[in-house]
Each structure stands twice: as C-alpha cells, then as structure tokens.
Amino acid sequence: MLLNNLKNSSLNLNIHQIFTDSAKAIISNESCYDFIKTVPDKAVTLIITSPPYNIGKKYEKKTKLQDYYLKQEEIIDQCVRILADNGSLCWQTGNFVENSEIVPLDILLYPIFQKHHLKLRNRIVWQFGHGLHASKRFSGRYETILWFTKTNDYTFNLDPVRVPQKYPQKRHFKGPKKGELSCNPLGKNPSDIWDIPNVKNNHIEKTIHPCQFPIELVERLVLSLTNENDLVFDPFLGVGSSTVAAVKNNRRGMGCEIFDEYYTIALERTILAMSGDLQTRPMNKPIYEPQSLPIAKESYIM
Fold first, then answer.
1. Which of 79, 84, 46 has the alpha carbon at shortest distance from 242?
2. Per-domain residue ranges for the chain?
3. What pTM value is reported for the model?
4. 276: how many CB neighbours lie within 10 A of its CB?
C-alpha cells in the first residue's frame, strides 16, 4: 500500500522509473547494469556513487576481488559512456577488509578510470568520527572520493561550497592592499579533506541502510560540479541520498536500487525533499564536541 501511494505521488511530482529527459527525478527499481544501457550517451553531468565494498553486507554477495573488479569495470565503462564532456565522475570507496588486511579500493579501481583517460582532479579524503572498532589494527575513520573529469572543460563552482574562514577578519599588514581583507569574504576553499559526520544511529538522516551516504557529502559535490537542471546519477542509490541532494538543489536526480525496501525509502525521501519536508543535517554545521568534565582535584593525606 505504501509503495503504491508513493508511486502515485511520484507521478504527480514528475518522478519516473524509466529514463526520460523531462523527468525531475528517475528512480529505478532494477539493476544498474540493466538500467544504464537505456541512458543516452553524454546525458549526465555528475555521476556520484559509493558502490558495494565486497565485504559481505546484506545488499551484496562477497566474491573474489578479481570478479569484483570486473563487475566494477562493467559499470564504470557504461558510466563513462553516459558522462557529458563537461561532466564529473566521483567514485567514493573505502577498503576491502579480510583477516585485518585491507585493500584500498580506490587504488584497486584506478586503472579502470585511467584506461578511459579520465583526469583525476582530487583524491578527497572524507574523515568521520565513528565506525567499527578494530582490535588488530588502527580503527578506520576515513574513506576516499576519486573525482575525475572527462575533459579539461568541466563545471566547477567554488563559491557555493566555501566554508567559514579560520580568521575571517585577517587583513594585509603591508603593501598596496594594507588594511584590506586578505581572505575571501565568502569563505575559504574546503580543501580535499572533508570532516563530515557519517550517518549513525543518532543522525537525523538515519534509515535502515547500514552504510548510508550523508546528504551533505553529496550536496558539496552537486553544488560545485553541476549547475541547476543538470542531471545527477547514482548507479548504487541505496536509500536515495544522491537523488535527495540533487532535487533539494534544483538539479535532476537519477538512480538505481535493486532492493525493494531501499528503493521504497529512496522514493519516499526524494518525494519529501521535493516538498521541502525532509529533515537533513545542514551543510557546514559544526561538528558536535562534547564538553569535557572538570577534573577533580586529588586530595592527599599527609
């Protein structure tokens, strides 16, 4: 009943399941390997995704790394085909872990992008404060985003994603600009290390998905690498953070999710984002830091 109601609402909001140029959003309940073949060449401005890491989560089947590599190659090849000449491709990955040994998946997959002569603009480190605790190595608290462009003529808008200056009133102390502000009043470049909380149990965006994208992470890429009405595609959509980030910022969102329960949530969240009713963590909200308790003075018996 819920899914039928959502589908009826989605049609009213111009959300479709099959590719069409006129759709505000496209959310497909099928394999990305099948769906992507229906998308025309050079139709997408931004591809942003976090594929399965081959570690045996409920939404993936753990396979040999070589088999995993070949499946990733298959979808990446198609993504390059549908990417516009001024477009960007952002592949967000962590590590394959087995017996406390890690394989960095961005390094493993890099040759696939290289064979297409994509241009790596940044290897963005996304750091976060919470995660599984390791006992035989240091606990992992970062993942990486490989940002590629297809050509040297690509969309990049820095101003919408600037972050607050550390010293906003700093001024030139000598020379012809003495006394003038020495930093951009709109904020500074966020650099290639992003400190954004991951979605854990007390996060306002938390759903049933165990490895959910924080919307803020996608928004920073959407705002900087696309313009309004551009098409953003996530082949491994999960619970819809990428389509939410797109429609929330007046872009068109498109994604695939083969698991029915995740598809339903993705559709619902995208509908709520379109109506402005979805609760999300605001961009650039300061990271919460608990107050330190006062240290009691020790008493000594003389």
1. 46
2. 2-161+190-275
3. 0.88
4. 7
CA pair distance 168, 55, nearest whole angstrom: 44
* Strand, helix or coil for residue 5: helix
d(CA 243, CA 278): 12
- pLDDT of 94-105, one tens digit each? 998 888 899 999
Specify the pairing of strand 252-256 against strand 25-28: parallel
CATH code for the domain defined by 2-161+190-275 = 3.40.50.150
Cβ within 8 Å of residue 288, ≥6 positions away: none
Nearest to 273 by CA among 30, 47, 27: 27
- State the helix-helix crossing angle for 105-115 and 65-82, rounded to 10 degrees: 40
**248, 273 contact by CB (below 8 A):** yes
Place of tokens 């390997």: 33
Which positions ≥6 away from 8 have C-beta within 8 Å?
none
Residues in the chain: 302
Backbone angles phi, psi at 188, to 5 degrees: -105, 165
The pLDDT tens digits of the residues spanning 153-193 come to 999 999 999 999 888 777 777 778 777 777 788 899 999 99
The amino acid that residue 175 corresponds to is G
Please give the C-alpha separations between residue 97 and each of 100, 101, 105, 140, in angstroms, as whole numbers.
Answer: 6, 6, 10, 11
Give the contacts of 176 (CB within 8 A, at least 6 positions apart): none
DSSP state of 227: -
Question: Per-residue pLDDT tens for 221-252?
Answer: 999 999 999 999 999 999 999 999 999 999 99
CB 137 within 8 A of CB 109: no
CA distance 169 to 285: 21
Q: Report H helices in 13-64.
A: 32-35
Check residue 22 and give its pLDDT: 92
In the block, residue with structure tokens 């017996």? 99
CA distance 51 to 79: 13
**Token pair 């959407």: residue:** 222
